[in-house]
Amino acid sequence: MGRIIREVFRVIAAHDELAETPMLPPKDVAALAAAGFRTAADVLSHLPKRYEDRRRFDAFPTQASPVPVCLRGAVLDAAPRGFGHGRRFFEAVVINGADGVFGGGKVTCRWFNMPFIHKLLLAGQEVVLYGKVKDSNGRLVIDHPEFEILRGDDDRESIHLERIVPIYRNVSGIAQRRLREIMHLLLLQTAPESLEIATAVVAGPRSEALREAHFPTSLETASEARRRFALEEFFALQLNVAWRRARYHERPGRVLGTKTTLLKRFYESLPFDLTEAQKRSIREIVADMREPRPMSRLLQGDVGSGKTFVAMAAMLLAVDSGCQAALMAPTQILAEQHFLTFRRWLEPLGVRISLRTSARDDSSHLLLEGEPQVIIGTHALLFDSVAFRDLGLVVIDEQHKFGVAQRAALIRQGVVPDVLVMTATPIPRTLTMTIYGDLDVSLLDEKPEGRGRVVTAVRVAPKQNDVTKFVRDQLEAGRQAYLVYPLVEDSETLKVESAIEAHGKWVKRLSGHEVGLLHGKLRPEEKERVMRRFRDGEIHALVATTVIEVGVDVPNATLMLLHHAERFGLAQLHQLRGRIGRGGHKGWCVLLTDGKNPEALEKLRILEQSADGFEIAEADLRLRGPGDVLGTAQSGLSDLKFTEFLADTALLREARALADSVLAGDPDLTGQWSPLRPLIVSRDEASPESVTV
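Structure (tokenized):
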């Protein structure tokens, strides 16, 4: 066992401080403490990120592949190299050779901006490599592979070879193999009974599950163990969600929406019929507002599904009940668009509307006489200068663009107001259960008539002249175009054209047409000015980054070119695609890619075949995990360890059923019901907008 057998053997309890035991050297204890691990239980909760089956290794590659490989070989040569402008990198040639037996095949490993690698890798060493193989000028290379140096006889009959080996996320100051040894030691010396949880809701000993999770006898038992701990974690999350929902629904509210005069007049004024999904959502909102408890509802709809008209209906119910309604949007120009839309449809009904943004206060000259009944604005609504007489309904648009504190601050402007939050970001059902389990959900799953059809096409390395001609043809037909890039400025490490660089080229290509530039580094007032000019038709083609993802309606924009499309997530591409086809004209969304990554190309083909945002979001979750669906920091997912199970609907339902069962037997949660992380709740403000996991 190499170094392991030299440690001091002593049985410890899972929650003993490691610093107070003689089992680990002070250097290891300090490194673990710096990473937040102070007890054996803390360290053992750091489960492997993946496993390598070192009973058999992959064959040395003969061609590039998007699937990572695990190779065992010998370092033939290792040395620093250089390329243009004096930049250096470290390169090691690894051949198919282990235990003195050499076969065919070799691969070149490269590390950029990591000068310390030369102190670790030497010719003659035996190594295990893990990474994706690509073709670089005819050579098979792995850039920045994970690697581990084998130590001859020390690794025979050990935890590092000839078995399924755990691979952990790095802990600064502790090498991978040393971390593996520490895990093995702690499993040997920690009293099994101390690893159990008195209030556990999952059957079976945790100590055995931990052993299988760290040093599994098979990949199947490893997956089963991880699923067990995922259930524990999701149970804690769902218990929090269920508790918040129960507490919020206990709060006394007021009955709104019994009078529907304005709503009926609104229906009669529309020159079109609402979709069945819109009507169903309005009925659900009416039922909520008539309950003597505050409404807490999520209105979830794909781009262009008509959320604004549903929000109007809800706000008219509030106004008819004698109170005010407020809508908060994430940007000034989006707030202005909502304001113009609401004025168009609601002012003829006699509703007084006000716009409040940081740049403008239009209450004085854009209103009918009297105090405003509907107030639309940005985060400026949170400031004291906005006086609400009786705020009864809060509507939050693109809610994930706001922080929890901002949402809570607006809600506190009223006295237990009804709350409707809206999002155009398609959210997979499993994430809705996880993030919004404390909200009732209304789903807009169909689009209104009159939308232009959008054709999506993937184009691999097309000729620039052909692309330019296609854009010119659209502009000369009187349409407008978005030209989207993933980066604002050029990058030294990425061979990706930036928006700033591309803008100058498009100005020349599209001479005779006005070409604008929009990105996140512009000052807010400049961004608003550019977007307003594009909306008003003064700019014909807009070179932009993803800052347009949540934007205004430009019905005349019918073309979107997405450059380096492989660098965007599926859900994000779908959201961007929703910027076009908002008028009655046919739209074109062209995904431009170099085609070098087969996996990325397959991902883009999904968008060619589907316009269903929820179907696309499910695929995105499977491909990339939940981090980019909403932004983990805002969504409460940033600390989850088992995100790979967020697509497991059955597991999430089981966790929610366990949580509901516990809450039914212990409504005040007097037990200690958090097995892996604390249950964070505020008993003073148990609203969905003021409490976070």
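Residues 51-167 form a domain with the OB fold (Dihydrolipoamide Acetyltransferase, E2P) fold (CATH 2.40.50.140). Confidence is low (pLDDT under 50) at residues 1-7, 363-368, 628-635, 674-693.
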